[in-house]
Amino acid sequence: SSRVVEIQSQMSERAVELLGLPEDRPCLLLDVGCGSGLSGDYISNEGHYWIGMDISPAMLDVAVEREVEGDLLLADVGHGIPFRPGMFDGCISISAVQWLCNADKKSHSPPKRLYRFFSTLYTALARGSRAVLQLYPENSEQLELITAQAMRAGFTGGMVVDYPNSAKAKKFFLCLFVGASGTLPKGLGTECADGEETHQAKFTNERTRFRNAKGKSVKKSRDWILEKKERRRRQGKEVRADTKYTGRKRRPRF
């Protein structure tokens, strides 16, 4: 229906806006769960290029019939994002990622599928870029599951909620940063009449914990190194054992 199309394009517009793309050059975007290519139309109109992934052959057939400008890939994003590292300048997804919380097959583990999706997405995105995923979470547990797997995969950022006080217009956008952490954009409609902001669910950014009193990052401190090694272990990488020498400075010469 035209109403669905209208809502879809509004959300695509907002998602692309939240990406904060450079204005002086065309970008290559990934559209996760692109469906019949409605969000892609908006990306094309803005002068950018896109590749869309979707699990539904029927939806992609519609996109082909509509002669969308993006390239299309039939794939289950729960199996990962199969593109080379740093290929995309950004990723958007409209109403798709919450489906990864469902276990459709016995073999499906939602946390594993989410982690596979986020870790491969992280790799496929250029450093300093963003992913903006609009989703319809069923409950706060789903939101937390999705956000936790994104952070585990290395993303920073959090949830931007537009019109949090409206039952109809309330929209959730998971706004994720790759590499350099940006400032989380403000949700629309979050200012109250008296200019105070309504309280929003913010997810902590784990990476700002290690700061010393002057606000400098204590990168390379022992805590920072132990945390990083722990992160690597969780990703299944081989890491040297922790010893009393971990994080200790070497003498200038022997």
Can you give a write-up of this model?
The chain has 254 residues and is α/β, with parallel strands linked by helices. The chain folds into 2 domains: 2-203, Vaccinia Virus protein VP39 (Rossmann fold, 3-Layer(aba) Sandwich), CATH 3.40.50.150; 217-253, no CATH class. Helix content is 30%, strand content 19%. The protein contains 6 helices and 7 strands, in the order αβαβαββαβαββα. The protein has helices at 2-19, 38-45, 57-65, 110-124, 140-152, 222-234, and strands spanning 28-32, 49-54, 71-74, 88-94, 125-135, 156-162, 171-177. Strands 3-2-1-4-5-7-6 form a 7-stranded mixed β-sheet, with helices on both faces. Strand 1 (28-32), helix 2 (38-45) and strand 2 (49-54) form a beta-alpha-beta unit. Helix 1 (2-19) crosses helix 2 and helix 4 packs across helix 5. The longest helix has 18 residues, at 2-19.
